[in-house]
Design a protein that fits this description.
Layout: H1 34-46, H2 52-63, E1 67-70, H3 75-87, E2 93-96, H4 103-116, E3 121-123, H5 129-135, H6 145-161, E4 166-168, E5 185-188, E6 193-196, H7 204-214
Parallel strand pairs: 1-2, 1-4, 2-3, 4-6
Antiparallel strand pairs: 5-6
């Protein structure tokens, strides 16, 4: 079977739609009825001018204890963790440890524990990196990063999302075209739960202003030309004038792992 070239579109992978996911697998389940979707739409519109803290407070009041957060320890994620530590430190937070993360990224887990008393849970694929690469004749990310992301990240995230009614997302609308139309509150069709994006309307400058003001811990790679940090093999530093996500999957027609794309 021929492998896709770096310049050609990559094949997509998906989870079996027949299996209950996200909030549909919760007890009790949260079903996207017309009433719920209308509520989400109205609240999203109301919260367009709200602060991130106000958005998080609404989400906590509405969905806790079935409210969670997945984080890759980016500056936006660290900002939200800082906010949650002040208002709801009991909120469960997890990281998808693909086995390919930078050590600088992994070190932030211990930093968060020491600073906030919050222990971020690792969610792991079923196989180690060595087992995965041995079964596939080498690193899959070199030829098919979509499949690697699916196997090592998205499939793990689908399992991790089961049983929750809502989760916090750290995306900003100005990060990429894929994220430009993200609502403050929306129904996540892929993972089947409510997605809350408290930083959607914030700029990069606002995020870093708060990080500096509050001395929020962050990945030291950001000071080395990596505005967006993912897995080590698929992340490079960006040059002057490049999009902040240009360093992700460089050489492929890919800018998202699939978590935030429809």
């Amino acid at each position: 079977m021929s492998q896709p070239s770096p310049s050609s579109p990559l094949p997509l992978f998906s989870i079996d739609a027949n299996e209950p996911r996200g909030a549909l697998a919760a007890d009790p389940p949260l079903v996207p009825t017309e009433e719920l979707l209308e509520e989400i739409k109205q609240e999203s519109e109301k919260l367009e001018t709200a602060t991130p803290q106000e958005i998080l407070r609404w989400a906590i009041d509405r969905f806790a204890p079935r409210f969670t957060m997945a984080t890759a320890f980016g500056p936006e994620g660290m900002t939200i963790i800082h906010m949650l530590a002040e208002m709801a430190p009991e909120t469960p937070i997890f990281n998808l440890d693909t086995g390919y993360q930078f050590q600088e990224t992994l070190d932030l887990r211990e930093t968060i524990k020491k600073r906030y008393g919050i222990e971020v849970e690792y969610k792991l694929p079923e196989t180690t990196v060595a087992e995965y690469e041995a079964a596939n004749g080498g690193p899959v990310y070199k030829t098919d990063p979509n499949r690697c992301c699916f196997d090592r990240k998205l499939s793990v995230l689908h399992k991790a999302a089961k049983g929750w009614h809502a989760w916090a997302s750290a995306i900003r609308r100005d990060q990429s075209p894929d994220r430009a139309k993200a609502p403050i509150i929306g129904w996540d069709k892929k993972f089947q739960l409510v997605k809350v994006s408290p930083l959607a309307n914030w700029s990069k400058a606002q995020v870093w202003t708060l990080i500096t003001k509050e001395n929020i811990p962050y990945n030291p790679l950001h000071d080395q030309g990596y505005p967006s940090v993912g897995c080590q093999p698929c992340t490079r530093a960006v040059g002057a004038g490049e999009d902040e996500r240009a360093g992700r999957w460089s050489g492929f027609q890919k800018t998202e792992c699939g978590l935030h794309s429809s």
